[in-house]
Amino acid sequence: MSVCRRSARHPSHAASPEYRLETATGRSRRWAGALALLLLWPGLALASGIDIDGSRLSAGWGIPFAGILLSIALCPLLAPVFWHHHFGKVAAGWSLAFLLPFAALYGADVAGASLVHALVAEYIPFIILLTALFTVAGGIFIRGNLHGSPGLNTALLAIGAVLASFMGTTGASMLMIRPLIRANDNRVRTAHTVVFFIFIVSNAGGALTPLGDPPLFLGFLKGVDFFWTVRHLFPLTLFLVSALLVIFILLDRWHYRREGVLPADPTPDTRRIGFDGAINFWLLGVVVALVLMSGLWKPGVVFDLYGTPVELPGLLRDAGLVLVTFVSLRVTPARVHADNQFSWEPMIEVAKLFAGIFLTIIPVIAMLRAGAGGPFGALVAAVTRPDGQPDPAMYFWASGVLSSFLDNAPTYLVFFNTAGGDPRLLMAGMATTLAAISVGSVFMGANSYIGNAPNMMVKAIAQQRGVRMPSFFGYMGWSIVVLTPLFVVTTFIWFR
What we know:
Layout (H helix, E strand, L loop, with lengths): L24 H15 L23 H16 L1 H27 L1 H31 L2 E3 L6 H34 L7 H10 L13 H9 L5 H32 L14 E3 L2 H18 L5 E4 L2 E4 H20 L2 H6 L5 H25 L7 H6 L9 H14 L2 H11 L4 H5 L3 H13 L9 H12 L7 H23 L2
Antiparallel strand pairs: 1-2, 3-4
Helix pairs in contact: 2-3, 2-12, 3-4, 3-12, 4-5, 4-7, 4-9, 4-10, 4-12, 5-6, 5-8, 5-18, 6-8, 7-15, 8-17, 8-19, 9-10, 12-15, 14-15, 14-17, 15-17
């Protein structure tokens, strides 16, 4: 199956450079219908208690997972037109490449139980939270014109870093990037400001809570305590963000003194700075409260859905997040969405691609749980010391390097399960290892444009507003020079 062929049709695409995706209502319905058919798969009702023995699987079952990740990484670069029109079909194709042979060989009951677990326990809560944060952030517009001095720019980056841990890197990026660009539209050189914005706001700033970045929320769903990330990752995050802010202000001050500003400011001054759609800040607080409730309240009420335990707090959290989404859409003025250029197309893309990722990762996780005796024993050995203990430094760099070019959420899951997959053990005796996996997945998503979804969104918005952003490899030059030395220092301080 060729998933990355070039297309010569339609040399130009009508969608905005910001998202460059087509509206896909009909295709979304077909996707939902396909999932519904899978949920009605015969034999599901008999699936209770069935688990996959990863030691009996061959490494070939990881091909669909590798295929969808490589498709996400390469197709937007090699065949952008094809990808924009058919990314959902590509994701569905790789999903079926796993599900159909697996069901044929191991039975519909085993495949069906694994499917339901992936959807109900991981994918649906994940997408619901992202949708709520995306909607609430899209309902807040910062109006007014600021003047981009080095001090102001540094302050905006610091504010964005704090917001990222509470409204997600996607939400904070979408909220803060436009005011930052407007503030600097009278500057000669602004690309470095956007590059550091990606480093700090779109990645490093989201490391403090499960709300901040998808990998940490997946860990939360797996059983990692909500406040564990704050307690164990705060020193590392403070070091990286502080170092990046210092480097940025020195660089920005040098550019400012050398070049000054343009004679005329393209954005006219306004009488005051303010927020439109400020009610969404209250809704953001509701999102935080719901997530905290689901992690702290343990009534012991559990429902069984085809072998997957579903706890009452999780159900109430997801229902509440759906309600928050609809309330935000209802109370936010249309003018605010227009000013923010709000569109559902990014969420459609995320929903389709992550459905494929969460399905194709099923056998990979099973094989990793098999440990040294499984098909991925070499990977387990690479991150394990001779005495059998995990090597946090290797976990940091292995999870980080993969997160640089693949999506950091599945990368986190891979190494979470490589380390044993038991949240209680990882939070206690293996806390350093879990910290290494967490910050490696979050921090190093900044190493390339494709390392984290907000990176590409910020780049597209900046280019649309006239900022001359570095090329793919030009950006990597920035990350190698600026970030790699800081990651080396992080390794020697915390993981050796």
